C-alpha cells in the first residue's frame, strides 16, 4: 500500500467514524484475557435502609483497558431508573489479575468475577457487584405454526441469495432472503464479534433491513449511549428507547412487528410503514412511523409498494446469525 493510498484510507476511516485495528474474535472460547472481565455486574451498595441497587457495564477497549458505566437502580432493562448513567471518565487497567478504576466518585476493584466498590478516599467497601450473563427471553424461540423458517441450520443457506454458513453452522452476514414479505412478524438471533481495539462503526457492524428498505442497526454498542446509528437504532430515523445491547459474543434477539406502507395507483404514499422492535425482549421502538417515500441509508431495495426481502448487511465485520423465521400477516 503506497503512502498516498494509506493517507486516503485513513481519512475515509476517520471521516466515517470508525477504526479497524487489532484482533477480531468470533469464538467465545478463543478470546483474550480481557474478555472474561468485561461484561455486566449487578448488586447493591450500602446496607439496610440505605441499600441501593446498581448495575455496571465494563467495556473492554483492548490491551487491558476498560471503561465503566454505572446505572442507578440496576442494568438497562433490569431496574435502571433512567438517571445518569454515570460514565466513568478514567479508564481502568488490568494489572496482576485485577482491574482498578479510580474516580472522584470512588474506587472499583474487579477481581474473580466481582466488582468491589469503595467510597472516595476510603479503604472501606460499600458494596460488591457480581458479574452476570443475561440472556434474551426470546432466545431460541420456536417458529409458530405457519411460520417461514429462513434459517434453522446450514441446509437453509439455500433460502438466501449469497447464503453461506460458518464452520459452526451459523449464517454469515451479507445475505438477502429469496422470499419477500409485506406485513410480517420477524425473529432474528445474532451474535456480534468481539473487537476490543475497534471503535464506532468498525466494531461488530451489520444491520437488519426490513423489506430490504429500513435498517435496524446491529453494532457492538455495549455500554454506549443508544443513538440512531447504534445497536437497535433505526438508522437515520429513530434512536432506541433504551440501549439493550449485551456484551459482544452474546446471542441477542430482535423481534419485529412490521406493517408495510400503502400506496395509491400512482405510487404515492398513502400511509407510511410502521414498526415495533424488541431488543432482547425489551420494546425499544413502539409503533414507530417510517418514511414511506424513502429507504434508509445503503438499503438494497428502494421504497415502494412491493414486498421486500430480509437483508442482513455486510459491513466488513463477521456477524453471525441463527434461528431466523417470519410470519406473514394476512
Q: Could you characterize what this model shows?
A:
It contains one helix and 25 strands. It is mostly beta strands. This is 3-keto-alpha-glucoside-1,2-lyase/3-keto-2-hydroxy-glucal hydratase domain-containing protein. Pfam families: 3keto-disac_hyd (PF06439). InterPro entries: AL/BT2_dom (IPR010496).
CATH architecture of the largest domain: Sandwich
Considering DSSP H and I runs of 4 or more, what fraction of the residues is helical? Answer: under 10%
Write down the CATH class of the largest domain. Answer: Mainly Beta
| Fourth-tier CATH superfamily name of the largest domain | Exo-inulinase, domain 1
Uncertain spans:
1-19
Shape call:
elongated
Radius of gyration: 21 Å
Strand content: 35-45%
Overall mean pLDDT score? 92
The first-to-last residue Cα distance is 55 Å
Structural class: mainly beta
The CATH topology assignment of the largest domain is Jelly Rolls
- Number of DSSP helical runs: 1
Strand order of the largest sheet: 2-3-4-6-7-8-9-10
Number of domains: 2
Main sheet overview: 8 strands, antiparallel, barrel
SSE order: HEEEEEEEEEEEEEEEEEEEEEEEEE
Please give the number of β-strands.
Answer: 25
Amino acid at each position: 500500500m503506497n503512502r498516498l493510498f494509506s493517507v486516503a484510507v485513513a481519512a475515509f476511516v476517520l471521516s466515517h467514524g470508525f477504526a479497524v485495528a487489532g484482533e477480531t474474535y468470533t469464538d467465545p472460547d478463543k478470546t483474550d484475557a480481557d474478555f472474561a472481565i468485561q461484561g455486566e455486574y449487578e448488586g447493591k451498595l450500602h446496607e439496610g435502609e440505605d441499600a441501593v441497587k446498581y448495575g455496571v457495564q465494563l467495556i473492554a477497549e483492548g490491551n487491558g483497558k476498560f471503561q465503566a458505566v454505572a446505572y442507578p437502580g440496576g442494568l438497562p432493562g433490569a431496574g435502571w431508573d433512567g438517571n445518569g448513567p454515570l460514565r466513568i471518565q478514567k479508564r481502568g487497567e488490568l494489572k496482576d489479575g485485577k482491574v482498578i478504576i479510580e474516580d472522584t466518585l470512588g474506587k472499583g476493584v474487579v477481581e474473580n468475577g466481582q466488582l468491589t466498590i469503595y467510597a472516595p478516599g476510603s479503604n472501606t467497601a460499600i458494596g460488591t457487584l457480581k458479574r452476570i450473563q443475561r440472556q434474551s427471553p426470546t432466545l431460541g424461540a420456536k417458529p409458530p405454526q405457519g411460520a417461514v423458517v429462513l434459517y434453522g441450520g446450514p441446509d437453509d443457506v439455500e433460502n438466501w441469495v449469497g447464503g453461506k454458513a460458518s464452520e459452526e453452522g451459523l449464517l454469515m452476514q451479507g445475505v438477502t432472503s429469496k422470499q419477500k414479505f409485506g406485513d410480517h412478524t420477524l425473529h432474528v438471533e445474532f451474535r456480534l464479534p468481539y473487537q476490543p481495539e475497534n471503535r464506532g462503526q468498525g466494531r461488530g457492524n451489520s444491520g437488519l433491513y426490513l423489506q430490504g428498505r429500513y435498517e435496524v442497526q446491529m453494532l457492538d454498542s455495549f455500554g454506549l449511549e443508544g443513538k440512531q446509528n447504534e445497536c437497535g437504532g433505526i438508522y437515520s430515523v429513530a434512536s432506541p428507547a433504551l440501549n439493550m445491547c449485551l456484551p459482544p459474543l452474546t446471542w441477542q434477539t430482535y423481534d419485529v412487528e412490521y406493517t408495510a406502507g400503502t400506496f395509491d395507483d400512482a405510487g404515492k404514499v398513502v400511509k407510511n410503514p410502521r414498526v415495533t422492535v424488541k431488543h432482547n425482549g425489551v420494546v425499544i421502538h413502539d409503533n414507530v412511523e417510517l418514511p414511506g417515500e424513502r429507504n434508509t441509508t445503503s438499503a438494497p431495495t428502494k421504497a415502494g409498494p412491493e414486498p421486500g426481502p430480509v437483508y442482513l448487511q455486510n459491513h466488513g465485520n463477521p456477524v453471525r446469525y441463527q434461528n431466523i423465521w417470519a410470519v406473514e400477516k394476512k
